[in-house]
Amino acid sequence: MVRQTWLFSATGKGLNRVSRDTTPDWAALLRRVAETQDNDAFAALFAHFGPRVKAYLMKSGADAASAEECAQDVMVTVWRKAGQFDQGRASAATWIFTIARNRRIDMLRRDKRPDPEDLPWGPEAEPDQEDALALQQETAQLTKALRALPEAQRSMIERAYFADLSHSEIADVTGLPLGTIKSRIRLALERLRHSLN
Question: What family is reported (predicted)?
Answer without folding.
Answer: Belongs to the sigma-70 factor family. ECF subfamily.
